[in-house]
Amino acid sequence: MVVIVGGGMVGCEVAEFLVKNGRKITILEMMPRIAGDVTRPLRFDLIMRLRKAGIQMEADLEVTRISEYGVWGIRKKYHYGPNEDFYEADSVVIAAGFKPPSSLAEEFAGKLSVYNIGDSSRPGNLKEAIKTAFLTAMEI
Fold first, then answer.
1. 61, 75 in Cβ contact below 8 A?
2. What is d(CA 74, CA 45) in angstroms, rounded to the nearest whole number?
């Protein structure tokens, strides 16, 4: 059993890969929707594939602890008090969000012209990275 912490595009793609390799999968996402960062037409198809593959999906759940036995989490919008749920796992994959590294841009700031594009300016996808690169190139 594999628990994937993070139900965005990356977490869902990892889940699809692992389920095709015979693993049982649970995706835990702290945002209200699984694959919330995927465009609407693609998201519908992705969710249908995950359901068809038997992947358990839990949204609006904040992971509180990870141990050698599994993962605990609390529903963000609980109705009857905060109950901690447990998801058994022999493996845990962290596919949660990230912060862009800005240390290199900060190091060179003031010494030369620095243009921060793609994931180094803010987390995104390939389309957004290409767009910011194009717009920056047009300004130079």
1. yes
2. 28
110 shares a domain with 46: no
- DSSP one-letter code for 70: E
Contacts for 4 with CB less than 8 Å, ≥ 6 apart: 11, 14, 15, 18, 25, 26, 27, 28, 92, 93, 95
Reported pTM: 0.74
The model's confidence at residue 7, banded by pLDDT at 50, 70 and 90, is very high
Residue 58 sits in which domain range? 2-94
Residues 70 and 51 in one domain: yes
Q: Quick: pLDDT tens for 68-78.
A: 999 999 987 76
Integer CA distances (angstroms), 13 to 10, 33, 65, 88, 95, in order:
5, 15, 23, 21, 10
Q: What is the pLDDT of residue 70?
A: 95
